[in-house]
Amino acid sequence: MSRPAKRITITGAAGQICYSLLFRVARGDVYGPDQPVILQLLDLPQAQAAVRGVVMELDDCAFPLLAGVMITDDPETAFRDADAAMLVGSRARSKGMERRDLLAANAEIFKVQGRALNAAARRDARVVVVGNPANTNAAILAQHAPDFPAENITSMIRLDHNRAASQLAAKAGVGVEAIERLAVWGNHSPTMFADWRFATAGGRSLPELIGDETWYRETLIPTVAKRGTAVLEARGASSAASAANAAIDHLHDWIHGTDGRWVSMGVPSDGSYGIPKGLVCGVPVTCAGGRYERIAGLTFDGFAQSMFDRTVGELAEEMAAVAAL
Ligand code: NAI
């Protein structure tokens, strides 16, 4: 283990997503089998005992790549010299809580964490926000980290992308690895738009292969949109292992590249596709050389345009609601 270790800040460390995520990151699933990692774990003061319990279990796994673990309830300490950050912790909606109060509570969390990121992380750190509302939380983080490159602050829509890829592969009767050029646009919420129009399987157009536009509109899109609720109802708890897996896919692909394959990431808008600047919006990208690049020049038909406008409109509304607070 001669390479210097990569420092990864992970928030919400006592939560259920992290109970899967931490073990996979420590095993090398983000940076690969030759790269030691140090975990810098942030959670609230009242969750510190639970984090210590998870760290005991990390110790008990004897992961060869795990070069150190730090636990803290101080955001700036957590972000110190970070090479990457996975922001999972956020305020969940409690019973009777208004949407406005939820947005306000999370805006406050991501404001504090944005300042800490700005003060303490490496300038080339890659950040993925998982905690909901993930896109808006990422936009607030960027607003409060003015000296940190905004393009390195992203949000996770990869779980929706993976959900759609899996459903499409099953319907087409192909392996999921055959699915290419799938796009998921917009907000990580039930309005997200899983767009199959450009998708292929083994080089063949997926819409032609499946040949069932009604299934696409009336089954695929709602299935992906409501998948989180379906898992919650069946399991009695929200998606955790699949969310951790998607966060790892997101960061892994950003760092290692996608070989020309499209993946979906929430990225700060550069104004393309008419997405207002200041929003962090799910778009299709490819990754190479440690950078993501938006797929440019895609066109929209009437149905796609209406789906796209709805989800981007929701993001704009969330940001306006936060601004009004
Ligand atoms: P959880 O409730 O089990 O854990 C959340 C953890 O965050 C708790 O340990 C809590 O103490 C901590 N936390 C709260 N405020 C914090 C703060 N200010 N700083 C540091 N830690 C803080 O939740 P779970 O299941 O792990 O989910 C975490 C988040 O991920 C939720 O917001 C959930 O909605 C979101 N999520 C996002 C997905 C996506 O696709 N973007 C998919 C699935 C979940």
Automatic annotation (TrEMBL):
UniProt xrefs under Gene3D superfamilies: Lactate dehydrogenase/glycoside hydrolase, family 4, C-terminal (3.90.110.10), NAD(P)-binding Rossmann-like Domain (3.40.50.720)
Domain Lactate/malate dehydrogenase C-terminal: 158-323
Catalytic residues in the record: H188 (proton acceptor)
GO biological process: malate metabolic process; tricarboxylic acid cycle
Top-rank taxon, per record: Bacteria
Keyword NAD tagged: yes
Enzyme Commission number(s) of this protein: 1.1.1.37
Lactate/malate dehydrogenase N-terminal domain sequence ranges: 7-152
Keyword Oxidoreductase attributed: yes
InterPro entries the record matches: L-lactate/malate_DH (IPR001557), Lactate/malate_DH_C (IPR022383), Lactate/malate_DH_N (IPR001236), Lactate_DH/Glyco_Ohase_4_C (IPR015955), Malate_DH_type2 (IPR010945), NAD(P)-bd_dom_sf (IPR036291)
Alphabetized UniProt keyword annotations: NAD, Oxidoreductase, Tricarboxylic acid cycle
Swiss-Prot/TrEMBL catalytic activity: (S)-malate + NAD(+) = oxaloacetate + NADH + H(+)
Enzyme class: oxidoreductase
Sites where the protein binds substrate: R93, R99, N132, R163
Binding site for NAD(+): G12, A13, A14, G15, Q16, I17, C18, D43, N106, Q113, V130, G131, N132
Molecular function as annotated in GO: L-malate dehydrogenase (NAD+) activity
UniProt function note: Catalyzes the reversible oxidation of malate to oxaloacetate.
Entry's family note: Belongs to the LDH/MDH superfamily. MDH type 2 family.
Protein name as annotated: Malate dehydrogenase
Species, as recorded: Aliidongia dinghuensis
Protein encoded by which gene: mdh
